[in-house]
Design brief:
The protein is built from seven helices and 31 strands. It is α+β, with helices and mostly antiparallel strands and 417 residues long. Helix 3 packs parallel to helix 6 and helix 4 packs across helix 5. The radius of gyration is 30 Å and the shape is elongated. Adenosine monophosphate binds next to helix 3.
Length: 417
């Protein structure tokens, strides 16, 4: 079972930076150990359990990179030459006889090079004379247009690392090695609840002071993209006893319990008290905007994260707290999120010692540069601000001001899931 160390993310400071949060998570989360073997067709997005070394070189044999004529470079002079053509090798055919000195062999892309040949002229660069000989221009480098065995990956080289979240190109590499299955960590199981007396599920009747629960569907979708097996547990009422009961029921059967709403410090925020009554809890006050306190805890041995209820705060804190926790629990190696430099088309002021995320759309400016335009409104409750934008501009703790034209770091939504 995936675990957290007993101090359940205890954090003493008054304010935690995003980097501190990520470091604490990386240091205290132990990943699931169970391994399952899946066919390649089901491997995309899974976490590789064991590293893979090349069981054969790629390409497995030396072959032509183009359609053309194979020759021995030692036969070439500084001037145009014409060689008789002595054979024809297609992709998939074997080169039966070695090339003879002063000859060329008709060859096609992917076909094995005949013994002795080391260079290929592209068919576009040659012509056939009246005698049926191929006329070769001067100046081609020895070795041109040939793909040597192992030039892509050498036999035995480490090709895929344990912890890799498999992408389509990784699956292709496993297939190129002739593997039919790969060993991956089992998916982590995440229980998701929304909390709030004002919420109803889509499909239920909605009275006027109520709103449809949207966060739960956002969280379920983000978790699914991260490869989790999700349990949709609906809405818990703002009542300590029913919250405590709902939470304890799923503990032990999941690797993570995730809630949204009810974790600020208002009178009607009962999640904190409920978790404290059945487990341990600390509030992480993160120096991040948008974002509210995030509750971290352990219930019956299962890690718990309580996200804020405002949709944008929920989204941003998911990216910085839930995402690294989920990937660590799942056993994934996590490359750091690297914001892409883009040009700001907006001005902005902020406090120091806090990281802020600005919702932006990207477009190509007249001079070809990528330009980020800020969504015109800032509320943490505006779902349209996430729907109508392409990603987040990350403004570090030291920045106090952004002016149009300044270079800023952009994180696209696609890269965050
Ligand atoms: P809370 O964190 O519970 O105080 O909620 C903050 C704001 O987010 C309130 O306006 C809630 O109505 C709203 N909210 C809370 N949970 C959800 C949810 N699951 N879907 C949409 N809005 C929510
Ligand atoms: Mg609430």
């Amino acid at each position: 079972m995936a675990q957290l160390s007993d101090d359940c993310f205890a954090f003493g400071g008054p304010m935690m930076s995003v980097d501190e949060a990520v470091a604490i998570i990386a240091g205290r989360v132990t990943s699931v150990q169970d391994v399952e073997t899946v066919p390649l067709a089901a491997a995309d997005g899974r976490i590789l359990a064991n590293g893979i070394s090349a069981p054969l070189p790629l390409p497995p044999f030396t072959n032509s990179a183009v359609d053309g004529y194979a020759v021995r470079s030692g036969d070439l002079s500084q001037a145009e030459q014409s060689f008789p053509v002595m054979g024809r090798i297609q992709a998939g055919a074997s080169a039966r006889e070695p090339i003879e000195p002063g000859h060329a062999v008709r060859i096609f892309t992917g076909a094995p090079m005949p013994d002795g040949a080391d260079t290929v002229f592209m068919q576009e660069d040659v012509r056939i004379d009246e005698a049926g000989r191929v006329v070769l221009p001067a100046g081609l480098k020895p070795g041109a247009n040939v793909r040597p065995a192992g030039e892509d990956i050498a036999l035995g080289a480490s090709a895929l690392a344990a912890g890799q979240r498999l992408r389509p190109q990784d699956v292709a590499l496993a297939a190129a090695f002739g593997l039919t299955h790969v060993d991956v960590r089992r998916r982590i199981r995440v229980a998701v609840f929304s909390t709030g007396d004002e919420l109803v599920s889509p499909g239920e009747p909605r009275a006027d002071p109520q709103l449809f629960d949207s966060n739960r569907f956002m969280l379920l979708a983000m978790l699914a993209r991260l490869g989790c097996e999700v349990s949709d547990l609906g809405i818990l009422r703002d009542d300590r006893a029913s919250l405590a009961q709902g939470l304890t029921q799923v503990a032990g059967r999941h690797d993570l319990i995730l809630t949204t709403g009810g974790v600020s410090t208002g009178e009607e925020d009962h999640v904190k008290a409920a978790v404290e009554s059945v487990g341990t809890l600390v509030l992480w006050r993160m120096a991040i905007k948008p974002g509210r306190p995030v509750a971290m805890g352990i219930i019956g041995g299962t890690p718990f994260i309580g996200l804020p209820g405002n949709p944008v705060a929920s989204f941003v804190t998911f990216i910085h707290v839930v995402r690294p926790t989920v990937l660590a629990l799942a056993g994934a190696v996590q490359p750091p999120l690297v914001p892409m430099p883009v040009r700001a088309a907006f001005s902005y002021r902020k406090k120091t010692a806090r990281r802020e995320y600005v919702r932006v759309t990207l477009r190509k400016a007249a001079d070809g540069a990528l330009e980020a335009t800020k969504f015109p409104r800032e509320g943490a409750g505006l779902l349209s601000s996430l729907v109508d934008t392409d990603g987040l501009v990350e403004l570090g703790e030291d920045i106090t001001q952004v002016e149009p034209g300044q270079t800023v770091g952009f994180l696209g939504y696609a890269s965050l899931m």
